[in-house]
Amino acid sequence: MEVSNVLSEIDVACKKQDGKGCRDLVVKIKSLAKESERNKRGIVSNGACGVLSEAFQAFSMASSFDENDDILEEILSALTIMFPLDAQAKGFSGSVSAMQCLIWFLSSRDLSRRRNTVLVLKEIVSSSSSDNRRKVNELSQTEGAIEAFFKLIKDPNCPSSTKAALLIIYHIITSSSTKEKQVRKLVNLGTISLLLETSLDAERSTCEKALGVLDGICDTEEGRRMVCDNALSMPVLVKKILRVSDLTTEFSVSVLWKLCKKGEMEDDRSVVFEALQVGAFQKLLLLLQVGCGEKTKEKASEVLKTLNLHRNKMECVDPMDNFKNLKRSF
């Protein structure tokens, strides 16, 4: 009853555009949720996510976000406690005005505010619903969105923010109707070098997401060309096969497949020779012997056939590789 009453009061405060009153009520709800897991479940089951998201949408429609800065920030903070967001909450949070406000928050110097914002955005776009593509499209078309996510990866002050930004970018460049435009922006910002450097020593989850974004970038012609031109690409991709997780192996093989396929189609075999130089043939052959998913197996086999055609021209195996002596016909 207490929760129900507070949520009703928040709804009334929103309609009156009473920012101070609404903020005090949100603080109360947040305090109750933090007291115990039982409280949190009770608050969520009473529809708190939907009420708070609707309040965020209402206060984001002001002529200037500065006018309701405090209440908007407080609502964001409360929402992060109640993940996962339900469909109703994602609907309100994914509205045009709310999305613009969230991107505006990403430019803040406050680390906590940026973290809360990107985590809410990740919730909005990480959905299997039919409405997900529309939200991803709206986000991709919001001015400054890609640049804001890039900044979160470039300045990794918070691991959870970095991973959330990578995941959102992945959804944008694989699901949005403007993915080629977004990839062009990412390329111009210098994202390819950043992704490769990030994946070098990153922990498993971050590495997987960075390589996933790289794989998405390689779906475009411009993206493949820029990845081919980067000196780190081949060494990093080959190194990550069978090193971190099944997913990093899957993404690494997928990128290799796209790059080598491009090299053969354009009769530019420099990328193939580079792959041979860093020991891709032995690594992929070992992958097939160890075993992997069906799609990865098909791509690895195709790359091996391409590499095998040129092995007699150039091959140099990394002396640090544990399988440097693996020599078998294919």
UniProtKB/TrEMBL annotation:
GO biological process assignments: protein ubiquitination
Coiled-coil stretches are: none
Q: Which molecular function terms from Gene Ontology are attached? A: ubiquitin protein ligase activity
Kind of enzyme, top EC level? transferase
Ranges for domain U-box: 2-324
Give the source's domain of life in one word. Answer: Eukaryota
Q: What Gene3D superfamilies would the database entry show?
A: Leucine-rich Repeat Variant (1.25.10.10)
Pathway membership of this protein?
Protein modification; protein ubiquitination
| InterPro entries assigned | ARM-like, ARM-type_fold, ARM_PUB, PUB22/23/24-like
Q: What is its EC number?
A: 2.3.2.27
Listed under catalytic activity are: S-ubiquitinyl-[E2 ubiquitin-conjugating enzyme]-L-cysteine + [acceptor protein]-L-lysine = [E2 ubiquitin-conjugating enzyme]-L-cysteine + N(6)-ubiquitinyl-[acceptor protein]-L-lysine
Annotated keywords: Transferase, Ubl conjugation pathway
Tell me which Pfam families the record gives: ARM_PUB
SUPFAM superfamilies, per this entry? ARM repeat
What is the purpose of this protein? Functions as an E3 ubiquitin ligase.
Q: What is the name of the protein in this document?
A: U-box domain-containing protein
Origin species, per record, is Hibiscus syriacus (Rose of Sharon)
